[in-house]
Amino acid sequence: MKSIKTLITAALIASFSTGCEKVLEEHPQSQIVPSYFNSPSGVLGGIAGVYNDIRGQWGTEGFTVEMQAGTDEFIQGVNAGGGSAYTYNGLNSSNFGAAWGVAFQDINTLNGVLQYGATIDLPEATRKQYLAQAKFLRAFWYFYLVQTWGDVPLHTEFITVPSQAASRQPAADVYALIIQDLTEAAADLPNQPTAPFLGKAATKPVAQLLLAKAYLTRGWLNNTAADFTQAATICDDIIAKKADYGLDLWQDYGDAFVPANDYGKETMFVSDHVLDPKYGYYQVGGQAGGGAAQNLSPWFTNWNYPNNSGINSIKNAAGAFVNNGTSGMIRDSYYGRPYVRMRPNSDKIATGPRAGKNYFLDQAFTNRNVDSRYANSFYTVYISNTAVTNQASAANNLRGITYTTVPGADTAVWLPDYEVPGAPQFVGKRPFKGIVVPPSLWNNGIFPALKKYMDPSRGANFNDPSTRPAVLYRFSDVYMTGAEAYFKAGNNAKAAALINVVRQRAAFKKTNSTAENAAAATVLTITAAQVTLDFILDERSREFFGEWQRWHDLVRTRSLVRRVQEWNQEAAPYVKEFNMLRPIPQTQIDRVVDGPKFPQNSGY
Q: Which of 146, 332, 223 has the alpha carbon at shortest distance from 558?
């Protein structure tokens, strides 16, 4: 494998958590030199530092925007703070790229682990596991890089001398390394988490899933039938051996997002976020500052319920929601912080064949009466958490009655997924104590909030960041990845069978009878003839909405421009084919002063 010098110095190491005390006790090092990897603690520390850097991306604000904005799923919330990431208008080399330098720093660390760790004094099985972790993590970062930027610097040797020269290698070479690393990692990683890599660190099935995704993505890039077949076969193998791997789907889709199940059977790979302040990311009770490795993902799609839930809100002459009156809610831990960065794409299309429809309800989350994923993914009912007395004489109280809301009992805000006559103060002719906000009244300040990763159990201050892990891969993704691979391989029957496992699980509700669940599963069962690329993408929305996958899903399937133009009105006028790669960070370009200039991606 060709090795090149890139613009990195020795990598920095910080402590992290994989749920294992041995890793937590590693002493951070300020700089890595070759001798650092001459001991088991040095090798383990190098791996620990890379896991820590993953935590500094997944769950943070900028990275979440990078992975989800500018797609068919999300549009801007009122506090988005800048539109280029969402609209592609003015997108340039100063946007995104926070993970570029981190990724190459980590790759260099992993090269050191692999180069020097092969001879450390450890039992053979332990040494193999350490090296397998390093291979997985190197492939993990390169897979992110090649999907995001295409051709990137490629190196496999530990660099200790800084260089001001760098070049990009073909994506084909990068994929070759990814596939080699993941194949070798899968051979040596344990079936289930094993000390010192407990929690949900990389295991054999995680490496296999990433390998299947790499084959699938390369197959789309080159239209290579063999890659699709390989990806499908790998997914079949994971499913066949799920008992050995301790993996399975929860019977109820919602159980995948119960905090107690964060490390359960459906979760495959996570980025940990710990409460202990000794790791330096925040002080308990000191509130979230948004930097470092803080997990703020529960709140990016949360509307400003404390300030935008006026009890006497009205619909104006233009038919729009107007917030008015005393707020029916106060901020609390259960409903989380109202960041209002992004919102589900529920704006109706103005013209064209989709006129009058929106992606959120009319394309993604259909069959909401039988498919449980909408109800399990979004808050639609906010129970009053403060007593508010509303006088009959209060401005815009159209109800004509005086009443006081009862905390814990009355509904303060109801966001139904259908139109309700009399909204926002009535249900039909019946006065409603709170407010009713149906889809026609949703806007960039009030909308159903994603609830999958809400965290009501934080520290002394409910503004503290979440301590739940960011879940990168769930077992249902094995079925959906396999289905997409079979679809591309021309086997729609097998694709439908795998999709139906996911859809039939989505039909289950604990409140249903056995007969009702069986009937719902029948409704959601599809045939081979229904399997299309758009159906698969819609199904991935239903299953993985808000799980850091959408931008790469659309890029992988060469669907970004088409789907954005079809469904996302704010981005449709600006998105172009070259936007399927992100702009190379300007910092990288500016630092290359020796040899040929570092090339920018076309269009930027």
A: 223
CA 177, chain centre distance (Å): 25
Give residue-wise pLDDT tens across range 508-553: 999 999 999 999 999 999 999 999 999 999 999 999 999 999 999 9
Q: What is the pLDDT of residue 123?
A: 93
Q: Rounded to whole angstroms, how far apart are CA atoms 437 and 439?
A: 7
Would you say how long the chain is, in residues? 604
Q: Under 8 Å CB-to-CB from 390, ≥6 apart: which residues?
A: 311, 312, 325, 326, 397, 399, 402, 403, 404, 405, 433
Under 8 Å between Cβ of 32 and 47: no
Closest CA to 345 of 322, 318, 363: 363
Burial of 387 (0-12, 13-18, 19+ CB in 10 A): exposed
C-alpha span between 247 and 500 (Å, rounded): 18
- Alpha-carbon span 372 to 376, nearest angstrom: 6
- 461 vs 530, residue with greater confidence: 530
Residue 183 structure tokens: 């194949």
Residue 314 near residue 324, CB atoms below 8 Å: yes
Query: d(Cα 543, Cα 505) in Å, to the nearest integer?
Result: 11
In angstroms, rounded to a whole number, what is the distance separating the alpha carbons of residues 566 and 571? 10
List helix spans (H) across 327-400: 359, 373-377
* More confident site: 4 or 579: 579
Residue 207 contacts residue 179 (beta carbons within 8 Å): no
H or E segment and range at residue 76: strand 74-76
Residue 543, exposed/middle/buried by CB under 10 A (0-12, 13-18, 19+)?
buried
Burial 310-343 (b: 16+ CB within 10 A, else e): bbbbbbeeeeebebbbebbbbbebebbbbbbbbb
The backbone torsions φ and ψ at residue 549, rounded to the nearest 5 degrees and listed phi first, read -120, -20
What global pTM score does this model have? 0.93
- Name the one residue in this structure whose structure tokens are 């019946």: 430
Preceding amide of 407 cis, omega within 30: no
3-state secondary structure of 474: strand
Q: Distance between CA 222 and CA 170 in Å, rounded?
A: 13
Nearest to 476 by CA among 171, 320, 267: 267
Angle CA 418–419–420, to nearest 5:
120
Compute the distance between CA of residue 520 and CA of residue 109 in angstroms, rounded to an integer.
Answer: 50
- Do the beta carbons of residue 311 and residue 388 sit within 8 Å? yes
Helical segments of 489-597, H only:
492-506, 514-524, 533-544, 550-556, 560-567, 586-591
CA torsion sign, 373 to 374 to 375 to 379? Answer: positive
d(CA 136, CA 358): 39
